[in-house]
Design brief:
Helix content: 25-40%
Low-confidence stretches: none
Structural class: alpha+beta
Strand content: 5-15%
Distance between the termini: 31 Å
Mean pLDDT: 90
Strand order of the largest sheet: 2-1-3
Largest sheet: 3 strands, mixed
Length: 101
Amino acid sequence: PWQIGVLWHRDGRVARPLLERLAGLPDLSVGDNEPYNAREPVGYTMDVHAGQRGYPHVLLEIRQDLVDDDVGAAYWAEFLHAYLAEILADPFLYTLRKDDA
């Protein structure tokens, strides 16, 4: 049922504010660690390339039928840019920290 899933583990510097912003949109179904749970070891990339190095990170899962053509892909790119731009502008975000912080 989710149009977008925000997947994260210990470091919520990007995920938490994104979830807060998206939660206010009545026509959008957002999964917090849905349809996959990033808190259960499901992959390598997020933990090794971001978490262990202290980089802020989030993994986004967009329902495939919403991005399977140029129009849908462009819509979601612009949509996400609008919500991520403010989050990514926060200088606090760029302080490296360990994933368990």
